[in-house]
């Protein structure tokens, strides 16, 4: 875009046209611009996802605003859907749409096969079909007749006539039912009540006008508002209603529908682009008048309006104008592109109005009357909040932040942000020295579709949408070529439409207990997703053009800036203590740095780095001219706030622009020559965005650095927040090499005033917090294990389900600990204590045994059958190795020097040896950790508890329930864990590793006396007669789910259809028929024993292969396949099921497979829970319970008699006279009583007792 440059247009397939010379300024050459816009419109036509939206905007399904010569197919719902070109049949509408694309055929919606009504989307016809089918299946009442029928008459005294179609009914209920089914609009109109109505836009406009009138007169009370509205609407308006209306009017004032203004803007764009003279502009303006603010339109009228608007925009972009005068025309072009693009991507572009917001006042629950009600209310509030925002629950439990949404009052926040952002600072015209030749860098090369796809994948799908409602999912459904051509229009015009820069600001608390003040909140500003995607692309290009100082570590690709700065600082402090050299450190805090940086300072920094004028003009458009509204509690929005200074925290380009401004400060500090030298390398600055740490070897040198910093931030319009700065000084004691902390001599900042001229100093023994990690005065990272145990105890006692507590620990607590403990200097003992504390707490709230269970089950990944609680010791080794290796390969000489020191090389080599990898790269360490995990799992597989691991390893479908967030009952989740980990409390499990003298204690307590079977988990869930009915229910539920899925796929399902073959009767679970093919399916739920599940699958197939010919003859089909659906009792998915599904020409989604596995596991847990109850009696009578207690006690005493300590128990059993002294009321001396108890219990302290075993 610089004078003398040329460009080419990249078309579909990578075809380039001839070179085009680009002019600068006005007049603007429109040929290149119109060519790109023409390709944009063509791309919008050919985009599969945008086509439906384009037709919706045009108001017609088959005749959009852009011509399309493709053939159109219409399908009948509910299917099956048959292709009219190749006779292909599909049961899913999305598949037939995908199939039609291969024929270059356009799908023109669907029709209901009952009433032949046409619909554009499958969701619309599916919603209609259920009601239409009920009407068709209902039998009309015999009293209902039509006036045209001369044979039947109804007496006039008892008839009710429909006002819409003159049909008569004998009852009023019949008339109302008829109106509801046939004349919905008449039914709704006659059913409306005068009270509890929704407030229309006309009424809200009256309220706003009345409020403005009262403000002018100086009377703004609620009574005056209620009186004015009562006179205006001729009805009684109470003070409470007036209060509600005022609140709603103020809330919706800044969020009124912007379609009229946007539409008017597009009309202006069309007019300016489609005409070359004022008269032609006026003629084109007669095409449609601007929409007034209070005018209402129906959906069809708006669709027709959008259709004509899109056609006019297409005509204007493909016109033969030779020249467009002025920048305003360019802006109108780009505004039209952004408006059309937002219309096509908007979620409500299918012609339906968005649901009206409900303003019903929530009823507060009655106050709890006792402790039980308080516990229930607390539990209910936690559950509701966890479903909506689990991150807030985690912040409350881990960081002790408030559970409720504590936000700044919206009027206070609006006043503070308006004062901060809307000020217009002076122009930064300070002289500078070019780092690169002027106009040597440009970022305006055409954007390709691959570039859009790359950055779109990097955007999180959960990121919030802007005010336009466009989400990342909508962008991913659009053709990347369409987005690339729209972005190229922004580049060519060097202009960003204002509707894409309208933002929404959310206030995030900075502290645990924020005050009702805007200073305690961090404003996060969110723009449109379309703009953020464009900003990401521009940011990546700008990174290649700007060479920042290597001491700036924030937002640098390929390096861990936080690890680098923390390691450097701890190394400097420890080196100073070792060598006895003076050390001075100051952590500088800039007041609202991102919000107050001058826009002219950004332009100055970009010029310093050699960016050309056109690229700087584009970036200026991205930074300036935007507005924002603050979103408060309940979705209340403030008035618009203009952003005249600062960069938005939430814009991808903001950190890079701020770093470019701060780069000059780092250059000045590094040239001062007063830093701290370590291994002949001088360290002056540790920078991470606006977190700047100054290091010097003398008190005078530190004051010089502070003076340089103070002068620079004053030139840029920033401020130094001295109250939040922190300094620490180490000086050498006389005649020794040891350092002591000096707090008597503070650092002074020149020109900052007498009261705030001194930097606050850290007290003796006080920690310094660097990037969230506390550093002790001796240079070692500090970690308080007592604080962690308190956090774990709060999580354990929280009113959450055990699976939810597990998710809090796994997804939030452990990642935060990995950051704090992933720095050099953390001891191995601390890491082991943290891991042990986490394991013990998790075992407690999951009710797992504290001993006798292998801890590998907790640390294994979920996909391998574990709980995914990563070991912090392993993570520490990996993070330190990766960070040290990154510092050694860094372009910063300081980082290379620090990483090359022996105290950092030793952990690096230890990590390489531990993971058995040649280099400490991320990929190599990831592979090494996986190999180490495989070796540990292989060792676990050789044990009793891990014998079934081969069945569950690398099975994400069967292991998904281990995450704990799939809706399982807590008792089923805990029982499933015990089943997987081999610690279920059965008799065989209790006696594992020991041989009782009485083998009867190992038999099943329900059927062991008759069958002689041992009580194991496999026996109870598969073979025990006591749980047979529950096992059948488990099997039948899976059969039912598979059958319902097959019906949705278009199959005719026969459940347990009996067939006789060779004198035997076979009853397969399912027989599916479709067309001329039949499929025999049988469901099996076997117990996983570590062997291949394929054996169970083959056994079922072999059994029912014998009835293949009988199935063909019985159902009259040409082909028959036999298969099986095998789901393990402990939630494993057989890989052979894929063969069965492929033979049936059907597909199970991952979600449906997870459902089947979860149902199988729940069906296994319930018989175990019922069978292992201590008091399993047929009737809950006192005598039965007493008898069962005695039987249970007799069994336990029998087990105890087999041990060494209780070998004499039979001599004292049932001897009340001998055992009377055990009550403690016989008058024995205390020492004799205690010694007697030790004798009875076999724990007397003798030499033989000590050496027993």
UniProtKB/TrEMBL annotation:
It comes from the Eukaryota. Residues 160-184 form the C2H2-type domain. It comes from Trichinella nativa. Keywords: Metal-binding, Zinc, Zinc-finger. The keyword Zinc applies. InterPro entries: DNA/RNA_pol_sf (IPR043502), Rev_trsase/Diguanyl_cyclase (IPR043128), RT_dom (IPR000477), Znf_C2H2_type (IPR013087). This is Retrovirus-related Pol polyprotein from type-1 retrotransposable element. Signal peptide: none annotated. Residues 346-373 are annotated as: Disordered. Residues 489-775 form the Reverse transcriptase domain. One of its GO terms (molecular function) is zinc ion binding. SUPFAM superfamilies: DNA/RNA polymerases.
């Amino acid at each position: 875009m610089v004078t003398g440059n040329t460009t080419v247009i990249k078309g579909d397939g990578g075809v380039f046209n001839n070179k085009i010379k680009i002019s600068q300024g006005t007049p603007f050459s429109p040929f290149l611009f119109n060519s790109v816009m023409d390709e944009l419109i063509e791309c919008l036509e050919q985009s599969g996802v945008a086509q439906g939206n384009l037709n919706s905007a045009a108001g017609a399904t088959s005749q959009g605003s852009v011509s399309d010569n493709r053939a159109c197919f219409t399908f009948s719902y509910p299917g099956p859907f048959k292709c009219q070109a190749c006779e292909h049949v599909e049961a899913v509408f999305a598949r037939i749409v995908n199939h039609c694309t291969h024929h270059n055929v356009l799908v023109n919606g669907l029709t209901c096969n009952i009433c032949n009504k046409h619909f554009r989307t499958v969701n619309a016809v599916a919603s209609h079909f259920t009601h239409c089918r009920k009407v068709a299946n209902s039998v009309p009442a015999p009293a209902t007749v039509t006036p045209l029928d001369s044979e039947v008459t109804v007496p006039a005294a008892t008839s009710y006539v429909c006002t819409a179609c003159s049909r008569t009914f004998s009852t009023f209920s019949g008339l109302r039912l008829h109106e509801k089914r046939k004349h919905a609009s008449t039914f709704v109109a006659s059913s409306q009540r005068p009270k509890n109505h929704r407030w229309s836009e006309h009424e809200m406009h009256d309220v706003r006008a009345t409020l403005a009138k009262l403000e002018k007169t100086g009377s703004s009370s609620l009574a005056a508002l209620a009186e004015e509205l009562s006179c205006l609407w001729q009805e009684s308006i109470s003070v409470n209603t007036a209060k509600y209306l005022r609140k709603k009017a103020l809330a919706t004032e800044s969020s009124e529908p912007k379609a009229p203004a946007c539409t008017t803007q597009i009309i202006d764009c069309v007019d300016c682009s489609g005409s070359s003279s004022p008269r032609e502009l006026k003629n084109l303006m007669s095409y449609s008048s601007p929409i007034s603010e209070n005018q209402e339109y129906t959906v069809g009228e708006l669709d027709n309006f959008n259709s004509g608007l899109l056609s006019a925009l297409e005509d204007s972009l493909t016109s033969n104008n030779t020249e467009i005068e002025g920048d305003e025309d360019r802006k109108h072009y780009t505004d039209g592109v952004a408006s059309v693009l937002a219309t096509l991507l908007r979620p409500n572009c299918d012609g339906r109005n968005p649901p009206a917001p409900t303003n019903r006042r929530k009823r507060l629950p009655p106050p709890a009357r006792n402790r039980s009600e308080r516990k229930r209310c607390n539990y209910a509030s936690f559950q509701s909040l966890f479903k909506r925002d689990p991150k807030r629950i985690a912040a409350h439990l881990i960081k002790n932040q408030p559970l409720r949404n504590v936000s700044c009052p919206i009027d206070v926040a609006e006043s503070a942000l308006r004062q901060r952002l809307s000020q217009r600072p002076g122009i930064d015209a300070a002289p500078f020295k070019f780092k690169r030749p002027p106009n040597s860098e440009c970022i305006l090369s055409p954007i390709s579709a691959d570039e859009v796809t790359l950055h779109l994948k990097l955007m999180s799908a959960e990121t919030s949408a802007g005010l336009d409602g466009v989400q990342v999912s909508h962008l991913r459904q659009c053709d990347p070529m369409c987005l690339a051509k729209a972005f190229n229009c922004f580049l060519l015009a060097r202009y960003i439409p204002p509707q894409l820069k309208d933002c929404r600001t959310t206030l995030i608390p900075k502290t645990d207990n924020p005050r009702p003040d805007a200073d305690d909140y961090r404003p996060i500003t969110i723009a449109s997703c379309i703009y953020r995607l464009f900003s990401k692309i521009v940011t990546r290009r700008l990174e290649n053009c700007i060479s920042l100082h290597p001491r700036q570590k924030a937002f640098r690709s390929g390096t861990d800036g936080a690890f680098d700065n923390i390691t450097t600082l701890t190394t400097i402090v420890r080196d100073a203590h070792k060598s006895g050299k003076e050390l001075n450190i100051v952590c500088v805090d800039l007041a609202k740095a991102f919000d107050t940086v001058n826009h002219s300072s950004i332009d100055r920094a970009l010029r310093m780095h050699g960016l050309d004028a056109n690229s700087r003009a584009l970036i200026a458009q991205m930074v300036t001219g935007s507005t924002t509204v603050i979103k408060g509690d309940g979705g209340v929005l403030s008035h618009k706030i203009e952003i005249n200074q600062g960069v938005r925290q939430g814009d991808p380009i903001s950190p890079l622009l701020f770093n470019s401004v701060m780069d000059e400060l780092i250059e000045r500090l590094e040239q001062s020559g007063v830093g701290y030298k370590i291994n002949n390398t001088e360290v002056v600055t540790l920078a991470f965005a606006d977190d700047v740490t100054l290091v010097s070897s003398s008190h005078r040198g530190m004051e010089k650095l502070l003076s340089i910093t103070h002068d620079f931030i004053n030139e840029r319009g920033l401020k130094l927040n001295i109250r939040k700065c922190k300094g620490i000084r180490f000086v050498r004691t006389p005649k020794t090499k040891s350092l002591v902390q000096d707090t008597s001599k503070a650092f002074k900042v020149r020109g900052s005033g007498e009261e705030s001229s001194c930097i606050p100093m850290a007290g003796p023994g006080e920690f310094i917090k660097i990037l969230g990690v506390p550093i002790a005065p001796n240079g070692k990272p500090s970690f308080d294990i007592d604080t962690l145990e308190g956090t774990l105890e709060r999580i354990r006692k929280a009113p959450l389900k055990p699976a939810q507590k597990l998710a809090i620990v796994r997804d939030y607590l452990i990642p935060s600990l990995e950051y704090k403990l992933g720095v050099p200097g953390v001891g191995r003992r601390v890491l082991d204590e943290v891991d042990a504390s986490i394991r013990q707490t998790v075992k407690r709230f999951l009710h797992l045994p504290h001993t006798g269970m292998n801890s590998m089950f907790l640390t294994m990944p979920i996909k391998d059958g574990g709980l995914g609680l990563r070991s912090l010791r392993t993570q520490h080794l990996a993070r330190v190795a990766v960070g040290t290796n990154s510092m050694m390969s860094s372009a910063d000489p300081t980082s290379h020097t620090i990483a090359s020191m022996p105290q950092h090389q030793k952990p690096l080599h230890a990590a390489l040896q531990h993971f058995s990898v040649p280099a400490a790269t991320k990929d190599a360490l990831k592979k090494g950790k996986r190999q180490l995990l495989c070796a540990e799992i292989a060792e676990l597989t050789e044990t009793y508890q891990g014998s079934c691991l081969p069945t569950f390893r690398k099975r994400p479908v069967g292991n998904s329930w281990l995450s704990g967030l799939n809706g399982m009952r807590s008792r089923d989740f805990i029982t499933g864990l015990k089943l997987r980990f081999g610690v279920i409390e059965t008799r065989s499990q209790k006696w594992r590793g020991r041989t009782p003298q009485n083998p009867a204690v190992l038999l099943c307590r329900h059927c062991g006396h008759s069958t002689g079977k041992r009580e194991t988990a496999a026996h109870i869930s598969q073979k025990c007669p006591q749980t047979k009915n529950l096992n059948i229910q488990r099997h039948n539920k899976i059969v039912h789910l598979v059958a319902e899925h097959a019906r949705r796929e278009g199959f005719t399902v026969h459940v347990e259809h009996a067939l006789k073959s060779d004198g035997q009767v076979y009853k397969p679970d399912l027989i599916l028929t479709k067309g001329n093919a039949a499929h025999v399916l049988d469901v099996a739920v076997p117990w996983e024993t570590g062997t291949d599940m394929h054996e169970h699958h083959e056994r079922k197939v072999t059994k029912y292969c014998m009835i293949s010919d009988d199935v063909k003859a019985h159902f009259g089909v040409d082909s028959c396949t036999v298969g099986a659906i095998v789901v393990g009792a402990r939630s494993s998915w057989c890989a052979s099921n894929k063969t069965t599904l492929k033979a049936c020409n059907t597909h199970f989604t991952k979600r449906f497979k997870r459902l089947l596995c979860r149902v199988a596991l729940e069906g296994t847990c319930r018989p175990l829970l019922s069978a292992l109850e201590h008091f399993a009696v047929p009737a809950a009578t006192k005598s039965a319970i007493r008898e069962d207690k005695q039987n249970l006690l007799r069994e336990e005493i029998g087990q105890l008699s087999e041990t060494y300590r209780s070998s004499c128990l039979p001599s004292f059993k049932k001897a009340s006279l001998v055992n009377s002294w055990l009550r403690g009321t016989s008058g024995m001396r205390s020492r004799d009583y205690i010694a007697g108890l030790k004798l009875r219990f076999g724990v007397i302290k003798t030499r033989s007792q000590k050496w027993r075993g």
